[in-house]
Write a structure and sequence with these properties.
There is one protein chain. About 40% of the residues lie in helices and about 15% in strands. It has helices at about 15-30, 55-65, 85-95, 110, 120-125, 140-145, 150, 170-175, 190-195, and strands at about 5-10, 35-40, 70, 100-105, 130-135, 160. The protein has a 6-stranded parallel β-sheet, with helices on both faces. Helix 2 runs antiparallel to helix 9 (about 190-195) and helix 3 packs parallel to helix 5 (about 120-125). It starts with a strand and ends with a helix.
Length: about 200
Amino acid sequence: MKRIGIMGGTFNPVHKGHLALAKAAQKEFALDRVIFIPSGNPPHKAAKEVIDKEARLAMVRLAIRGGKTWTASRLEMDRPGYSYAVDTFRALRRKFGARAKLFYIMGLDSVNEILDWKKPLELFKLCEFIVGTRPGTKLRTFRRLVKFPPLRKEVDKIHLMELKEDVSASAIRQRLKAGRSVSALVPKTVGNYIRRNKFYK
């Protein structure tokens, strides 16, 4: 049975926290491969905050270059309209078949908002969730969420992983706007790409 991890997100920009989560998830859950899928038109993000999707994909490809079991996909970027996770996992299920085990890798902030997503309960029929938490993260909101009746019976499909890294894309954008270095937070190739294109100024 193939075990496939899906790293979805805006990747605005991709950073070392994303890579650390993917690496830890792959090791902990014995994933055969990890697919990074940048969102094309994320429904919950302000358009002015998100740079061009082709640039975000280019940064992801730079970040994962050389990884034998990590790939980047245009699946959401080439689909018209908003990028909804349930549509993505329906497509992945058709592609990989019923025997593949799919894991949706994300941060705690994302899973805490899952009831606002399109058809969130259907997602639990399509995949399991690997959720990365930052050091010192308070789980109060998450614990309340999984007590909610529709999710209570699905709680065993949500796996928490505490990471050492404490990196966020919003903090990186703020540092770049202030003219501060982000070399410790993003891969060198991504940092060079951001500087060349003057993103997030």
